[in-house]
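Weekend entry, working from home. Most of the wet-lab plans are on hold until the incubator is repaired, so I used the time to fold the two sequences that have been sitting in the queue since the last round of cloning. Logging both here for the record. First:
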Amino acid sequence: MPQIAALLGAGKVANMPLFKPLADDDPQVPDDTTDLLVNKITTDLAQARKLGFDQAWSATDLSAELSGADPLSAIGDQSAIIGHMSMKSYYYKSRRGI
């Protein structure tokens, strides 16, 4: 996906190309003497703040032996819940403008 990487680039802001809305012009009334005017669609760039979240955990063989369970599985389950709750919190904060 080199195209996506090129759009994102370095830094904290991503520039995303977009099509501007079509002009809200009155419809053309065709007749036998003139051709219809061909309208064009234009483009622009939208900017978005990039968010990145990283976290790391580890497990040892001893913890697996002592607990009798797979600690990496538990880490995966719990990190999915934490990630979901974090994104929900960031969403509500962004809606409030914080």
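Second, folded right after the first finished:
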Amino acid sequence: MTDVRIYLTEGFSDDRVVISVDGAKVFEKNSVTTKKLYGLAEELTPVSVAGQATKITVDLPEKGLSSTFSVDLRSGANVPITIQDGTLNHAVVKKIGFL
């Protein structure tokens, strides 16, 4: 098992966010907003997954944004997610800068 750590970072502004990992809902919250000082909106509880790959789905229903990311955990287990120019983006890193 590998623990995936998901971070909602830049671009969130009073958003309702729903996140699923491999089809199972792991997070749902209203009023998610990026804290400008830290560049962080939410740090989710680590999610254990089997194997070296997972799928993360991020939905912002009220904004009509949704994206599913295939994540190769051999590249790292930290997944920062941002909103830039109305698009959901992600990265996969071994270490996260603000921790």
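Plan for Monday: verify the second prediction. Strands lie at 2-8, 15-21, 24-32, 42-43, 47-49, 53-60, 65-72, 78-84, 87-90.
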